[in-house]
């Protein structure tokens, strides 16, 4: 009887130990789930803190009725070039940002969708922050000019950024 009780206790301890490693490995640093309105010629911006020390990941989905682009700028200098452009100043360079995260929205059933991957998985964040997540409704890089799709962009943003946590 004591042996059975001891074995059960050991099994429960092993299960809790494994569950703690799997479930407690990340901490959410940014979580946004909201509707946004973006004036033509601008972008909706979410500043994200640096997660480079231990590593981080991003997962997002943005939906709208008009085409748009998503940029993920790594560091202040990349974002400032975008900010200069949307303020009407011609920046010396126009960086794309992290190409593995940023994308142009694709049409799916009369809705334009941009997301981290086709299956919605998290993408690792490379480089040192801060980071800037931008839902763009300007002619930045000439990809989706708003003149062709007049009026403000109304979009739903679902964004989560995590950093690794060591227990």
Describe the structure in your own words.
- The protein is α+β, with helices and mostly antiparallel strands and 167 residues long.
- It has one domain: Jelly Rolls (Sandwich).
- Helices cover 20% and strands 40% of the residues.
- The chain is built from 2 helices and 10 strands.
- The strands form 2 sheets. Strands 1, 3, 6, 7, 8 and 10 form a 6-stranded antiparallel sheet that branches. Strands 2-9-4-5 form a 4-stranded antiparallel sheet, with helices on one face.
- A hairpin with a 2-residue loop joins strand 6 and strand 7.
- The longest helix has 22 residues.
- The two termini are 35 Å apart.
- The N terminus is likely disordered.
Short description:
With 167 residues, the protein is an alpha+beta fold. The chain has a single domain, classed as Jelly Rolls (Sandwich), CATH 2.60.120. The protein is built from 2 helices and 10 strands, in the order αββββαββββββ.
Question: Mind telling me the CATH class?
Answer: Mainly Beta
- At CATH level 2, the architecture is Sandwich
- The amount of helix comes to 10-25%
The share of residues in extended strands comes to 35-45%
Helical stretch count?
2
Strand element count: 10
Terminal CA distance: 35 Å
The coarse overall form would be globular
What is the SS-derived class? Answer: alpha+beta
How many distinct domains? 1
Overall residue-averaged pLDDT value = 84
The sequence of SSEs as H and E is HEEEEHEEEEEE
CATH topology: Jelly Rolls
Query: Biggest sheet: strands, sense, closure?
Result: 6 strands, antiparallel
